[in-house]
Write a structure and sequence with these properties.
Glutaredoxin; Glutathione S-transferase Yfyf (Class Pi), Chain A, domain 2; 2 domains; four-stranded mixed beta sheet; 7% strand; Thioredoxin-like_sf; Glutathione_S-Trfase_N
Amino acid sequence: MKPYELIGSAGCGSAIVEMALVLADVPHTLTDIPYLKPGPERDRLLALNPLGQVPTLVLPDGEVMTESAAMILHLHDVAPQAGLAPPPDKPERARFLNLLIRLVGAIYPTFTYGDDPPQWTTAGAPADLLRERVHTRRAELWQELERQAGAPHMLGRRFSALDLYVTVMTHWRPGPAWFDTTCPALSAVAREAAQEPNVARVLRRNFPPPTE
């Protein structure tokens, strides 16, 4: 059987799916690309995923998945022993699904609009205002999620892929120091997940520590 192919870019959301693939212990390859840079790599990405975004996951049968939450649920079906999601008959399942969609449907898009506001509105003051409001809204969403965080994992005693999302996304703006101060429960979830050796290895590859 052909391996999965994860097309991603270091430090991006593909790190979440990379962690899930490693924990699921399924054969896979990584194709790291500068996904916004014009050229043959982006051309291939656009042919597979017209949105031109990462992660993009090519399944062994050639099917292409473009949404990280769908990838997580698929990998849970393939390798339930990895514990990426609670089983359907467990009480945590509904909460898991709700928080998963909150992360990908509410928080994740703030980076799409906040990272490059002139792509969505007029450059200058309108773009600055959009960036400011998106950053404010993102902070509000994180603080709301903070109130729902369990310990030591998002679901309390049960690990899930929610912990992988938090581990990666707390490395993005506004940054780890902000989370340590403003959302300490989320920071604690991220630190706990990073204790898993495979998660730690993927984390180091995507967010290498600064050199002296």
